C-alpha cells in the first residue's frame, strides 16, 4: 500500500562557514527597464540563518512579476532591511551576509 502521508526528508541546514571576505550587501536589482523599486512579498530566510550560495533569500514583487532572488554568498544573515509588504528602491540594501559577530554598522543604510 502506498503511503500518501509519508514525511519528506527534513531540509538540510547549512553548516556555519567562516567567511574570509568581509560582509556583503545584497541590493535590490533592477529587474526591468522601468523598475524603480520592488516589494518584498516573502522573506525566505530569517535573521541569524546560515545560508549557502544558491539559497533563495526573498521573493520580490515588481510591476510585472514576482521573482525569487538567490544568494551568491555563503554566510550568516546579519541584516534584513524591511518587513514583508514593504518596498525597497532599486540598488537599496535588502540583506547583509557575513560572519557571526561581524561589525556591519558601516554597511547599514543611513536615515535622514
What is the annotated CATH architecture of one domain? Answer: Beta Barrel
State the helix count: 0
Biggest beta sheet summary: 4 strands, antiparallel
C-alpha Rg, in Å?
A: 16 Å
CATH class categorisation of one domain: Mainly Beta
Strand content: 25-35%
Please count the beta strands (DSSP E, at least 2 residues each). 8
Task: Write down the overall mean pLDDT.
Answer: 85
Terminal CA distance: 64 Å
By CATH, the topology of one domain is: OB fold (Dihydrolipoamide Acetyltransferase, E2P)
* Gross morphology: globular
SSE succession? EEEEEEEE
Broad structural category: mainly beta
The CATH homologous superfamily of one domain is named: RNA polymerase II/Efflux pump adaptor protein, barrel-sandwich hybrid domain
- Going across the biggest sheet, name each strand in turn: 1-8-6-3
Helicity level, as a percent range? under 10%
Low-confidence stretches: 1-10
Keywords: Lipoyl
Protein name: Biotin-dependent enzyme
Cofactor: (R)-lipoate
InterPro entries: 2-oxoA_DH_lipoyl-BS, Biotin_lipoyl, E2/Pdx1, Single_hybrid_motif
Amino acid at each position: 500500500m502506498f503511503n500518501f502521508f509519508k514525511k519528506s526528508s527534513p531540509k538540510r541546514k547549512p553548516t556555519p562557514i567562516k567567511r574570509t571576505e568581509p560582509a556583503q550587501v545584497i541590493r535590490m536589482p533592477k529587474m526591468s527597464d522601468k523598475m524603480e523599486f520592488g516589494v518584498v512579498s516573502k522573506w525566505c530566510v530569517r535573521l541569524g540563518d546560515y545560508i549557502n550560495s544558491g539559497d533563495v533569500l526573498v521573493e520580490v514583487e515588481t510591476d510585472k512579476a514576482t521573482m525569487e532572488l538567490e544568494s551568491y554568498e555563503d554566510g550568516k544573515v546579519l541584516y534584513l532591511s524591511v518587513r514583508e509588504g514593504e518596498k525597497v528602491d532599486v540598488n537599496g540594501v535588502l540583506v547583509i551576509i557575513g560572519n557571526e559577530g561581524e561589525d556591519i554598522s558601516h554597511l547599514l543604510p543611513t536615515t535622514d
